[in-house]
Amino acid sequence: MAARERAVAICRPEITELKIADFLMQARGTSLLALLVLLLCFLVIAPTQASAPMVQRSDELARQVHLISSDTAGGKWARLAHFGEGAPIEASLLQDESPATAPGGSLLAFFQRMGDSSWSTGLHESRYAYDLIESVHVWALCLFFGLAVMFDFRLLNRTMRSVPVSEVARRLLPWTVVGFVVMVISGTLLFSAIPLRSYQNIFFRTKMIMLLLAGLNVWIFHSGVYRRVASWDVNTVPPRAARVAGTLSLVLWVCIVLSGRMIAYNWFDCDRQPQRPIVNFLTSCVPTASEH
Amino acid sequence: MSLLALFQWCEQSGIGDTIRRSSWLFPVIEAVHLLGLGLIGGAVLVVDLRLLDLGLRRYSVARLARDAQPWLIGSLGLMIATGGLLFMSEAIKCYYHGAFWFKMASLFLAIVFTFTIQRKVIMADGVGVSPRWSKVVALVSVALWSGVGIGGRWIGFS
Question: B126 at the A interface (CB within 8 A)?
């Protein structure tokens, strides 16, 4: 009891700071999330049909080899070495059809133009820049995801039980904001190197939707139960709404990391036809006749 | 048995072969590996930020470390298990990849450092440890673990 009172006394004065930082973390979501996760699982588990030849614009190849790590034919990991042998020849055969005719064409056209810019091609063809940015992205993931998860675990009474929740929030959440900003900047740079392919990538789309839901969760948490934090600050078990927020946050961020990692794989890419109609629908992909 | 022979044996093992044959096993294991990295990041940073006087300042380092310990050990176990599987599927590539050896060296140093020098500083809980020394220890810890993460990422780059 004495420890409790001390903890309260210690952190009362500064409880209200850190509005923006708090805003970027935690809270509660919707049943949409469950549907999305199920959909993601289905897409991952569902077997893809026999792969069409790799068709890419040749200037994208240098970068794509990093991204394409599986080819269904032999299950062999396609690395730079493998690609050097066959793929460029195939790549030279391709027809440069404009995807601008697809649904949502204006965005597609926009990202295609972005991909054709010298900035974008320079970045994805650079020897080290892309890899370095990706390393920064992974490093910031530890900062952001790691500390966000520790905060969620506190809400779920899994760690730092004797530290008041507001103390954990005030000391750790600013670091998650730093991590988040670095992630957004490095992620935007990575996107700008391969905009069209990323935009049409099913995992990228899943990730973006889940990011929105995670943001919503943060907003609901901080405008709801966290406003009353003073009344439950030192409870080892926070109120139900806070635990729900912590759980949803955990699930969402884990799924965001997983789908982010999966963007690198091309199982459902537009240039790998035939795909299930649902996949082409979800990726705004309109395969040309020659791709069937 | 030479090291290369050992690596060859790993590569040719049933586990390595199964992972290579599957188009989704490697990505899935790799994704779990990445989650483990994030978890380690959290467990390490909570303690290191405290040592740097930037995190939960009012809270005892020793208690904080005790709270974070299960997560550190758990995620380290997860990392080693998934990392081992990934390694089995491409051991030869790792053998000839500088980033792999850099990562292993960092990992070895990080583990040794965390469970010897850093642990001693943490257990002292500020008694007889200068604040500057605490900060140096935290920075070394962050640097070593960063080396592990970034070295790991570079194994994937050709």
Answer: no
Kindly state whether residue A67 falls inside one of the protein's structural domains.
no
Domain range summary for chain B, segments of one domain joined by +: 3-155
Alpha-carbon distance of A6 to A89, in angstroms, equals 71
- CB–CB contact B93 A175 (8 Å): no
Quick: pLDDT tens for B30-40.
999 999 999 99
CA A168, CA A160: separation in Å to the nearest integer?
8
Q: Do A149 and B59 touch (CB under 8 A)?
A: no
A252 found inside a domain: yes
Of A12, A36, A13, the closest CA to residue A216 belongs to A36
How close does chain A come to B65, measured CA to CA in Å?
A: 9
Q: Is A230 within 8 Å of A169 (Cβ atoms)?
A: no
Nearest-Å Rg of the Cα atoms of chain A is 22
Please, what are the averages of pLDDT over each run of 10 residues along chain A (292 residues)? 46 40 37 46 39 36 40 32 35 42 69 87 85 93 95 92 90 94 95 90 94 95 91 88 95 95 88 82 76 52
Cβ neighbours of A261 in B, within 8 Å: 27, 30-31, 34
B45 contacts in chain A (CB < 8 Å): 142-143, 146-147, 175
DSSP characters for chain B?
--HHHHHHHHHHSHHHHHHHH-SSHHHHHHHHHHHHHHHHHHHHHHHHHHHTTSSSTTS-HHHHHHHHHHHHHHHHHHHHHHHHHHHHHTHHHHHT-HHHHHHHHHHHHHHHHIIIIIHHHHHHTTTT--HHHHHHHHHHHHHHHHHHHHHHHHHT--
Q: Which of A48, A79, A150 to mutate to test the interface with B (most CBs of B within 10 A)?
A: A150
* Residue owning tokens 């959909």: A39
Q: Is the pTM of this model over 0.90?
A: no
> Which positions ≥6 away from B19 have C-beta within 8 Å?
B25, B26, B29, B85, B86, B88, B89
Q: How far is A285 from chain B (nearest CA, A)?
A: 23
| Residues from chain B contacting residue A143 (CB–CB below 8 Å) | 41, 45
* Gap between the Cα atoms of A160 and A229, Å rounded: 16
